[in-house]
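Progress report, Aim 2. The chain analyzed during this reporting quarter is listed below.
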Amino acid sequence: MATRIGRGGLSRGIVLLLAAGALAGCSMSDDRLSSFLVAPGHYVLFQCDDIQSAAEAAVKRKKELEQLSARASTSAAGEFISASAYGTEYASIRGQLQDLRAAAKDKQCNFVPGETPPASAGADKAH
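Predicted structure tokens for the chain:
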């Protein structure tokens, strides 16, 4: 005999599942979350110029998200809304910048992605 689950039981189960997922995400460190959201080896085929361009775009978006988050965080509910609206993308951008730094180091580029480029940015190696 099959057991029927009423609508209330099913919706409570979904809510509990979502709450458990949210709490599990809270226990994950920012660095682990950001590396989890980025595909490994994504920047392996990039040259130094490509890495620099991608890093500039990521830094620009990171600053935009920081500004949006700061504006949203001015109220009590805004902090929660900010985290839910921008948190995942912000963590993803941080992960991209970590991977870009690793790729720049592997390619021996003369800059660190996510930081102000040196005055002689044109002297980067292009492997």
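The chain has one domain: 30-123. Residues 76-106 form the longest helix (31 residues). These observations will guide the mutagenesis work planned for the next reporting period.
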